[in-house]
Amino acid sequence: MTRYIYLAFLSFIVASSPSLAANPAHVTQLKETRSCPACDLSGADLTKLFADKDFNLEDPKVNLDGANLSGADLKGAFLYQASFNGAQMHGVDLRGANLTGARMDGAKMTDTKMGNWDVHWTNLNGTYLTDTDLTGTTGADLEMANTCRTKLPDGSMDAGYC
User: Which of 4, 67, 116, 124 would give a disulfide with 145, using CB separation of 3.0 to 4.6 Å?
Assistant: First the structure.
């Protein structure tokens, strides 16, 4: 009897735990329209989707305002003038990504990998950078960003406003 109670409890825990899997419909929408505000793209491997800078020459902008990108893989992505305003970006891998001209007002980036990230003309006003490594990042204007335990482009640590 105890065994069945244990199995029922275990099944309940597994079924009720949040998953880090992207909503397939949202991934399809992003591929087809390059726009997916407030989408759940957590854990999605988006490296191949944005690897080619010629993906859409007519409108290279991508709208991911308010999207959940937690755990997404965007290594080497070409996201020129992308919009990430208010996006949740916990654990996102942006190493080698080109986000020139991106807008990231209020984006929350915790434990995000950003080495060698090109952020020239990127709006980081109000962006929350916590436990994030910016080593080797070029063009970062962090004057209006909220940093906490962040490794700056020159390798120094910034305690910021934790």
Answer: 124
